């Protein structure tokens, strides 16, 4: 599953006074898609924190805002695994307006895999590595 799609509805709380999605909320939408991608692979983040004792933290973000998302828009947030390192994952993500798939935003997000205790770099869990073999 190299590409994951997650639907998001824009609520009033996501927008500014003009009805435009506040810029930081695009990152929240992208975070939700990555969380649901992990869940679709069979991994819950709270369980990963307990066993094997790892978590993912955003290390770097690059994002382009191309067109505004608006109040009550139906969006599709796309997450694609673009690369992996021993202790990292990199995603390409898009936010598209439905129907039609108009591209509103795109980004590249690098995640570091860290120990839950101590927040030190940790290799990706073997179970996640196994699932990623089919992706990359």
Question: What would you note in describing this structure?
Answer:
The protein has 136 residues and is of the alpha+beta class. The protein has a single domain, classed as Roll (Thiol Ester Dehydrase, Chain A). 23% of the residues lie in helices and 41% in strands. It has 3 helices and 5 strands. It has a 5-stranded antiparallel β-sheet with strand order 1-3-4-5-2. Strand 4 and strand 5 form a beta hairpin. The longest helix is centred in the N-terminal third of the chain and has 18 residues. It starts with a strand and ends with a helix. The model has no long low-confidence stretch (mean pLDDT 96).
Strand-residue proportion: 35-45%
Relative helix content: 10-25%
- The low-confidence parts are none
Across the major sheet, the strand order is 1-3-4-5-2
CATH fold call: Thiol Ester Dehydrase, Chain A
Order of helices and strands: EHHEEEEH
Backbone shape: elongated
What is the CATH top level name? Alpha Beta
- The CATH architecture category equals Roll
Major sheet details: 5 strands, antiparallel
Specify Rg, calculated over alpha carbons: 16 Å
Please tally the β strands and state the result.
Answer: 5
């Amino acid at each position: 599953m190299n590409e994951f799609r997650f639907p998001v509805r824009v609520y009033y709380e996501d927008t500014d006074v003009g009805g435009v999605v506040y810029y930081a909320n695009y990152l929240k939408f992208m975070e939700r898609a990555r969380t649901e991608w992990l869940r679709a692979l069979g991994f819950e983040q709270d369980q990963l924190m307990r066993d094997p004792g790892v978590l993912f933290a955003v290390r770097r973000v690059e994002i382009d805002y191309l067109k505004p998302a608006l109040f009550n828009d139906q969006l599709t947030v796309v997450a694609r695994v673009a690369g992996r390192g021993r202790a990292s994952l990199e995603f390409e993500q898009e936010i598209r307006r439905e129907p039609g798939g108009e591209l509103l935003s795109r980004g590249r997000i690098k995640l570091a895999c860290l120990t839950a205790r101590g927040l030190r770099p940790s290799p990706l869990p073997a179970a996640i590595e196994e699932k990623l073999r089919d992706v990359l």
